[in-house]
Amino acid sequence: MSTHHTGALPANPETATLEGKNKVLGFWLFLGAEVVLFGCLFATYIALRNSVPDGPTADEIFKLKTVGWSTFILLTSSLTSVFAIIAMHKQKLGQLLFWLLITVLFGLSFLGLEIYEFVEYVHEGHKFTTSAFSTSFYTLVGFHGAHVAFGICWITLLILQGLKKGLTVVTAPKFYVAALYWHFIDLVWVFIFTVVYLMGKVGH
Fold first, then answer.
1. Which of these, 56, 72, 34, 71, lies nearest to 197 by C-alpha position?
2. Who contacts 115 (Cβ-Cβ below 8 Å, separation ≥6)?
3. What is the DSSP letter of 8?
4. Where is the signal peptide (predicted)?
5. What pLDDT, on the 0 to 100 scale, is given for residue 102?
């Protein structure tokens, strides 16, 4: 197959075929299950966030400057993934892959900051088994971080596939659902930033 798409693609190539429509629909169902899973983790965290018999509290350890940078980086990566899909709809493979690469780089930067943040917390005595609060915190935020890492690997593989197979009605749904996934983990982070960090600093 050519490294570029052959001929003009439909206006919405991600749903131009039945297979593409099924992939998008199936992925929405998957995201529904993810919402339930994260909802359970959020509920557990909220129930346990004040259970700190030993070790530092949220107000003592959270540093909103670091988390603010993490939030800015991840939200910017959501914007670059939007640019990628816009480029896909314009049938510009080079721009699509470029914006996906930028999205991956932002994702790596976010993970780097999160790892730095966790190391700092551990040094301050906020370990996974320190308290019910710390366990629920690392479970929720770490689970989200694992989703970011998975998204980085997924999009990287799609970039390589795009270089090899180009933009077609077969590859377009894969790019599209990967962007949906990235928006989802960005949205989850907004809730984490609000419920975990902001409430941890200003509300008890």
1. 71
2. none
3. P
4. none
5. 98
| Nearest-10 Cα torsion for 63, 155, 18, 82 | 60
Average pLDDT, the chain: 89
- pLDDT value at position 135? 94
The DSSP symbol for 13 reads: G
Q: Each residue of 10-35: b (16+ CB within 10 Å) or e?
A: eeebbbbbeebeebbeebeeeeeeee
Name the amino acid, one letter, at 100: L
d(CA 70, CA 74): 6
Matching residue, tokens 């049938």: 91
Name the CA dihedral angle for 170, 183, 47, 67, rounded to a multiple of 10 degrees. 140
Q: Find the helix packing angle between 93-123 and 172-192, rounded to 10°.
A: 30
Q: Is the whole-model pTM more than 0.85?
A: yes
